[in-house]
Amino acid sequence: MNKLFKVADQQMNHLLTASGKQLKRLFITISDKQGTPPGTMVYTGKQKAEPLRISVMDFDAATLAEQSDAATEACLALKDTATVSWINVTGLNDTEAVARIGKGFGIHPLVLEDILHTTQRPKLEDLGDYLFLVVRMLFVEPGAREIHSEQISFILTKHCLITFQERAGDVFDEIRDRLRQSHGRIRKMGPDYLLYALMDAIVDNYFVILEKTGEQIEGIEQALMENPNSLLLNELYAQKRELLYIRKAIWPLREAIGGLERGESNLLSAKISAYLRDLYDHTIQVIDTVETFRDMLSGVQDLYLSSMGHKTNQVMQVLTIIATIFIPLTFVAGIYGMNFEHMPELGWKYSYPVFWVVMVTLSLGMLYGFRRMKWF
Amino acid sequence: MNKLFKVADQQMNHLLTASGKQLKRLFITISDKQGTPPGTMVYTGKQKAEPLRISVMDFDAATLAEQSDAATEACLALKDTATVSWINVTGLNDTEAVARIGKGFGIHPLVLEDILHTTQRPKLEDLGDYLFLVVRMLFVEPGAREIHSEQISFILTKHCLITFQERAGDVFDEIRDRLRQSHGRIRKMGPDYLLYALMDAIVDNYFVILEKTGEQIEGIEQALMENPNSLLLNELYAQKRELLYIRKAIWPLREAIGGLERGESNLLSAKISAYLRDLYDHTIQVIDTVETFRDMLSGVQDLYLSSMGHKTNQVMQVLTIIATIFIPLTFVAGIYGMNFEHMPELGWKYSYPVFWVVMVTLSLGMLYGFRRMKWF
Amino acid sequence: MNKLFKVADQQMNHLLTASGKQLKRLFITISDKQGTPPGTMVYTGKQKAEPLRISVMDFDAATLAEQSDAATEACLALKDTATVSWINVTGLNDTEAVARIGKGFGIHPLVLEDILHTTQRPKLEDLGDYLFLVVRMLFVEPGAREIHSEQISFILTKHCLITFQERAGDVFDEIRDRLRQSHGRIRKMGPDYLLYALMDAIVDNYFVILEKTGEQIEGIEQALMENPNSLLLNELYAQKRELLYIRKAIWPLREAIGGLERGESNLLSAKISAYLRDLYDHTIQVIDTVETFRDMLSGVQDLYLSSMGHKTNQVMQVLTIIATIFIPLTFVAGIYGMNFEHMPELGWKYSYPVFWVVMVTLSLGMLYGFRRMKWF
Amino acid sequence: MNKLFKVADQQMNHLLTASGKQLKRLFITISDKQGTPPGTMVYTGKQKAEPLRISVMDFDAATLAEQSDAATEACLALKDTATVSWINVTGLNDTEAVARIGKGFGIHPLVLEDILHTTQRPKLEDLGDYLFLVVRMLFVEPGAREIHSEQISFILTKHCLITFQERAGDVFDEIRDRLRQSHGRIRKMGPDYLLYALMDAIVDNYFVILEKTGEQIEGIEQALMENPNSLLLNELYAQKRELLYIRKAIWPLREAIGGLERGESNLLSAKISAYLRDLYDHTIQVIDTVETFRDMLSGVQDLYLSSMGHKTNQVMQVLTIIATIFIPLTFVAGIYGMNFEHMPELGWKYSYPVFWVVMVTLSLGMLYGFRRMKWF
Amino acid sequence: MNKLFKVADQQMNHLLTASGKQLKRLFITISDKQGTPPGTMVYTGKQKAEPLRISVMDFDAATLAEQSDAATEACLALKDTATVSWINVTGLNDTEAVARIGKGFGIHPLVLEDILHTTQRPKLEDLGDYLFLVVRMLFVEPGAREIHSEQISFILTKHCLITFQERAGDVFDEIRDRLRQSHGRIRKMGPDYLLYALMDAIVDNYFVILEKTGEQIEGIEQALMENPNSLLLNELYAQKRELLYIRKAIWPLREAIGGLERGESNLLSAKISAYLRDLYDHTIQVIDTVETFRDMLSGVQDLYLSSMGHKTNQVMQVLTIIATIFIPLTFVAGIYGMNFEHMPELGWKYSYPVFWVVMVTLSLGMLYGFRRMKWF
Questions:
Q1: Buried b / exposed e along E339-369 (16+ C-beta atoms within 10 A)
Q2: DSSP for C196-224, written as a single string
Q3: Neighbours of B81 (CB within 10 A)
Q4: pLDDT at A12
Q5: How far apart are CA B193 and CA B253, in angstroms?
Q6: Is the ipTM reported for this complex over the cut 0.90?
Q7: Which chains touch A (3 or more CB pairs under 8 A)?
Q8: CATH classification of E2-306, choosing from 3.30.460.20, 3.30.2130.30, 3.10.310.10, 3.40.720.10?
Q9: Beta-carbon contacts below 8 Å between A and B
Q10: Confidence (pTM)
Q11: B282 CB near a chain A CB, below 8 Å?
């Protein structure tokens, strides 16, 4: 029993350490920059060693120019060209380079601070010349078990879309392939459609994460049916925490995408609004699913507690039946084990058989009583 | 006891597998198409083998033409005729045919995607030339035990109502009969009234489902009164999950029908608004009932837990009464079973009767004490 | 113990059957008419044998004409007379007669359907020429124990107030008496004031019901203080369910009366608004009281659970104290009951007194330890 | 143990009877007047024997005339004088006198009904010529332990403030003193400021009540730390109920004072609005504190339940350790107490010491096992 | 066991006394001034001995004049100078001096009362000529363990920012350093930016507090994994209470800063709005984090309760297994310890070995049964 308990502890520790680390990343890094003046650019993320790399895809319906490691200056040159430019910055450690890009595109210092300060709440800000959108990208890298969480910031200008990621590796490869194929809607439309396509990829990935979560919840459930134990309880708790985490990342997103959809900015073309409404619907669906999973988890927890209560009750009943039957019998046996000199029954001839008859009758009577009380 | 437990497990597994499958269908199919460009038409439902079939009812107050297996082109011909046309498409596996209908009626690709993507959240979209309404149809097929859940999409244009179902078999037979009878309001009014009539049939079926659920809850309750056991707990849990499921399907419907009722579209005639308000009232009533059932279920669960607690307490009391009375008596019997050479009581003449008197007195005293403490 | 349990079960069954019947009436009758076209007049209530009877009170400040069993045609004649007419229809089984009245007063088929369909959610509808108000009347008939619940529909036209009840017997006798006395405000004002007076009588009766409920909750509480048992738990549960039921009937009423008060209809005179605000205040107060009762009931339930937990704990402590003291003593007595040939203590002279001293010392030591742990 | 339980019961009964009486006064008196026409003046309070007394303070910045037992007619004479008149009516049993005052000041019959009907929900009504405000005054009389609760109604006209109390004794003595001193803001301003000052005194008294409640909660908490018992549980429950009661009195006040602050009535001067905002802030703070206390109480309850669970667990562990060690030992002792003729061990020379060694080893081994399982 | 419990009690008492004191300070000091006329200046805080001290920083982009102990008159002289003046008042015991400053700057008496009355709810008031903002500053002094809580009031006029603190020591040192360095945005902008900078420092400190809280919650969690005991339960409870406290301080802040951001006052320049939106975002993030921590704590509490339930169950199972196996065996041994003269088995030759074989078989059978019931 002890050994089992140990194993459960270790597994739980593992689970919680994993999700604990993520939570730490989400909650507690603002204080790193506490005490600096507002607008100071300090990178607060954990990918300190990631080098800054800029990849550029510059395209219109006819042409596509791709650069995998562009210089800052090359990016700035694309600012006012009629082609659509997607400037993807990975690695935010080099704050100087980020500042240079920011300055070149006329981005407000507070926005740059938010980009570097990678524990932002998802939000949308319309700053006139450009839109600023921060979201959280969640994905599971192929082969890995842990959810990777990362802040992505979007700057949408008239001709460009700039994205800032903490490190290389994202959910956009499929979009890149679509861009490389000359046909398709994405090449014919502006940077606003590109923004939508990238956001769509991120939201679609939430469904992948949730599908995984849903399967795990069902697994816990099934296992619980077969044998409720404390190991499952800990898994349950870890899932609960993970949902809390996902929820914190997704809830504010609704508001941000809702803001986009209402579409007052002239950076968003009229055609895009149907797509944004679709995106908004998906976000609502993600939130619905998260809430349903939370309800399911708390249902599973109730079931666990009730099952445990039922089991305790059963154990108690077994104990009580056994003890209640045998304790009086043992008492009677004890009586005739006494060494009093004057105990007439001891000498009677049929004492022993009578003793057995009484014992068996008593036991059966008690069993009958317990059955009437529906104890078994 | 063990056997009983086994049976409960099996039944529970059955219950949960059944509802588990449904939930799976509802939650986790979006990822099937994850990675495809927006507007790509991929059917995500489970009825992969269902052939596409189009049935048409074309009518005005005087005439009715019915086709049970129409060609796509025949449908498109009905687009602008003055008669009201109900085009019912079942089986969404043939995405090409759906696309052809969509193109013919000028439907936006994202709308077509939503039609095929059969885990949509109920919603209403006003796209100017046509209204798009998605709802979830729940019904129990005659003879079956399981709730069948299916997405139904409505496209309402000036002269036509197009409905898309995943498979044949629905709750509309009664409406078809009414159409076939030449008299009645339904033949005299436009496609908006037909939409209302179909929606009304769907919402009325929710009441049938809920009636069934209500009866099951009452059954659980009654059974719980007679003998609270873990089997009922699992039934309770399965009901809770089913309600969660129904709720997820119905909540957003309120908003959609509310949107219809507010009636800003010119596709909805003025006469229809009284009917839509009625429909809205019914939806609210469905939601009310679901919420009340949830409250009732959590009340039943509380009752179960309290009953279990009470039972455990009773079992404990029996154990304690028996143990507390006999353990001291057994001790005394044990004393006079000792083999010390110098135990004066052993030789006394009335030791044995005195022993019995003391034992009985002690027992009665304890019983009296327990009664005063209201233990029985 | 078993007997007590039986009694509790019976009482509980009684309680729940009673309230279960009511709930059935409220929730599950819509499906009776499922499958019929909208606007079809089917009476869904349970008073199938109640004959239709129309009583009329036609009055102005000076005169009062009363008919206890009027013909349909007589009612229609009152439609446009300057006197105020209160037409009270009891027994909705005769749908034809209801239809005739409806047609005569120009009432929409859907409204008539709602009148017959007696599980409506309370609501107000302004249909231009007339107001339609549905409420639920709750009352306890003198001598009866059960709450009687019935839908009452009001049709307010310029000169008439038509009320539809499922059966004879209501809370309006007091109003009738006031009408018969020639003095009083009620004779001088229009049908809108009459509507208010009737609604006021209904809402006042909610207070009577709630007063009864409040007394029962206090009774449960008091009984719980004296001896917490499972009987009370079931009473508690029955009360909870009854409140759920009352709440479902009253919550939507707030909205309906709020709509009346805002008073945009020209069927409501300016003078009436102060009275309607008063009525609205009363409704809010009813809702407040229901909510407070719910809070109180859940408080009582918490108290019950805590008391049970406390009692279990106490029982456990008694068991543990007794067992922990006597089990070691019994072991020692068992040792000296062994039949080893070589046990030096058995032959010693003072073994037996020493044995007693050791036993008593050990017991007292344990008791002292338990007291320090605050076990008693 | 039994005695302790008795005491707890008595104390609890006392506590609950006390608060039960209050609740009764609040909830269940409307039915006293059920069946009377609206606007009928029936006093529903409990102070039936309190004689009606009118005290008047008539003042401007320069003069102050005070009458401790004024006649009704004297009051009416003050209606239109330029001086500010505070007419305080205590004892509402004499409904005729109240009606005469009401008529003199032109007060609507429904308002007079609300004044006499002393279980009103706090509310504000603007009736054009006068404002009507109902609040609940809570205070602890010096030396008393119980909270006294009483409805106070305010009628604010252009030159007068009329207050209606159920009985003499209130929280306004301090205001009277301020009025008697010729200096101070209160003498220079109108009846609206006087209304504010009185309301401020009432709200300030809520803080006194809450301070007392807060101290009691802390007391329960501290006592719980030292020794969790069922007495505290009952205190906790009584506090919870008291808070429920205070909350019901205060919540609607927020709305009423908010209405005053928004200040659309021309009976409220522009200068007063800063004071009313201050009053509104205090009300919000009272509500905040009540909510925090509720959270604290439910926290204390959780702590109690967890402590009880912990204690039960500890008791169980002690029982299990003792029983698990001694039950097998007793079995072994029982074996060698058997009287079989052929038991070789009985005759061996070192059987007895070996028996002891085995017993001690077994016990120590079990203890070691329990420690490893962290049972103590 | 007892000793451990003692230690837990002491630690808990310590924890609760600490946080209890803070709560006392927050909740229960309004009654100190109960009974005084509105606008009376009474300092209700606890820092009665703190002397009043005024420090002034008067600056524009070019110059900075700093006074560490200025006279009241010197402050008033700065009122209308074009330079930005930050007048920081610490120690509110000297109400006369505060009144003099208030009068000099034309501050309303109710505002001054709120400044001295140091248990205000955070709020913003726009009084035309000046803005009044009250917030709660939370910080941990270097080396200390306890959270220090203090009300800070801001008065923003056209050229000055006046801050009132209860005692010296705050979170503004970093701002002072920035002011002293001639470069930086803070020197070039007006008092509105200074207000923002100070507020930003306060909100940033909330994150520091929350980071500490988060670490403690994780510590409790980790400890709980290793060994769930009642000590942790008390820590958990203390954390819950602390969060309740922080929440009460922060929730209203959102509204106040939201009011600032919407920026209708002309005391706030257009440039400042981006900064205020940033501040508002931070406040939302603080609230989000507090709510997430509350969810986490209640998750930890659930885990604790489930773990305890699991442990109790395990203990029960061990007890039941041991008791159920040995009680029947002991009964059998008791039988053959009886002294009946006629017990044939006693004389049989192989009775003793057969006895052992039966005992061992029985035990193994029971163990097998328990394993099948999954008891270990």
A1: bbeebebbeeeebbeebeeebeeeeeebeee
A2: HHHHHHHHHHHHHHHHHHHHHHHHHHHHH
A3: 12
A4: 36
A5: 18
A6: no
A7: B, C, D, E
A8: 3.30.460.20
A9: 166
A10: 0.77
A11: no
